[in-house]
Amino acid sequence: MSKQELVVLGQSGENTPCCPGLVTAPLDEDQAVELAKLFKALGDPVRLRLLSMIASRAGGEVCVCDLTPAFDLSQPTISHHLKLLRQAALIDCERRGTWVYYWALPATLDRLAAFLKTSQTAEATA
Hints:
Elements: H1 29-42, H2 45-55, E1 62-63, H3 64-67, H4 75-87, E2 91-96, E3 99-104, H5 106-116, H6 119-125
Antiparallel strand pairs: 1-3, 2-3
């Protein structure tokens, strides 16, 4: 067994990104709590589909009127799922007249992607 010291991210005193890659070093408690909120929001198939529909939409935003028909759920249930995605800062929205338009927040999605990226993934994209 190696006697190499285990450095927990965020506790080394150096300036490190919020959520470095999964294979870089273990997360500290605050980082784990923050990321767990994001993964919890994505842990429901309806929310995952909603995020996918929003993020993949041409033009970068989608009206709630286009999201609701894709599900066999009531409008209040869809609104609840969208609220949870907004609370996790995965999406944002704006009311325009009667309708609400949603868009993905790239900074949060990029943070998740950076955390999940392995060294092999990084080498393959370089």
